[in-house]
Amino acid sequence: MKHMLLASVAALSFAVTGAAVNAADVTLNLSNEYSATSIHGVGDARFASLVAEKTGGSVEVVVHYGGALGYKSADHFDAVGEGALEIADTYGGALGGIDPLFLISSLPFFVTTVEEAELLYKVAEPEFKKVFEENDQILLYASPWPPSGIWATDAKNSTDALAGLKIRTYDKNGTTALNELGAAAVRLSWADVVPSISTGAIDAVLTSAEGGVSGSFWEHFTTFTEIYNYAIPLNFVHISKSTFDSLSAEQQAAVLEAAAETRDQNWAAIPDRLAATYGQLAENKVTVVTSDDDTYRTALQSAGEAALKDWLETTGARGQALIDAFNAAKAQ
């Protein structure tokens, strides 16, 4: 939040008394729909700490977890663009309605390792930045979720197990792919997942093991089924351009430096987070099922291809250019 009057008074005091008054102290609110213990919640706390350190405390980032400010990921883009919110950490699937290019990271089975996911992000990052810039925002950084799987009361390691399954997906790609396999998939924001489980509206959830741990899913489900690293989707942290522009040049440089360090640390954290997550699954008696069925794998890949085809029809030449650029970079 910008305190213009306070800054003016402090500057005047400095001019009159010569005292070392910091005239640019500002508080920035960051909204995150996920919990403080989630990988992105931890990343946001790291970013806030780095900003405070690098600005000597003149910029404070206050992180609001669990949608505490009343915003879901789907609300963030407009809220930041309109200046109602300074910074947001937004799941990429929620940005698919703004521009379907954001759905590239969640294309089913398109990338199956963290290294491939990071390469894909680097290829697509200029396009992502352009969308934010066109809407009065600046992309600070993006970082991944661990690979997605299926939380349910029993194993979902066959096409028969998916038939008619009322399952939550996190974006259009997942809905397309799982419906292709005969499921009754519905897209839900994270804040709506646990209430939907509780009411019986859904019987399963497509998300990472990490996501389920942050939501204490063992209170509802007993099984997490790995599905060949279905996808490694991204969250994007973006700031209002007017807010960024109101900072001093030194503060801007510090914020960007903190963002770059947070990005790198978030990507590097995935292996350790996975190890810790699987330890928590064991502690809470969650059965981890590893799919090992060629027929199932083939069916999943076919469903992924259907989602890719649908995405390319939506994104056209822009989408194909990113796919081609990624394949070329991957081949090097």
From TrEMBL:
<protein>
    <submittedName>
        <fullName>Putative extracellular solute-binding protein</fullName>
    </submittedName>
</protein>
<keyword id="KW-0732">Signal</keyword>
<dbReference type="Pfam" id="PF03480">
    <property type="entry name" value="DctP"/>
</dbReference>
<feature type="signal peptide">
    <location>
        <begin position="1"/>
        <end position="23"/>
    </location>
</feature>
<dbReference type="InterPro" id="IPR018389">
    <property type="entry name" value="DctP_fam"/>
</dbReference>
<keyword id="KW-0574">Periplasm</keyword>
<dbReference type="GO" id="GO:0042597">
    <property type="term" value="C:periplasmic space"/>
</dbReference>
<dbReference type="GO" id="GO:0055085">
    <property type="term" value="P:transmembrane transport"/>
</dbReference>
<dbReference type="InterPro" id="IPR038404">
    <property type="entry name" value="TRAP_DctP_sf"/>
</dbReference>
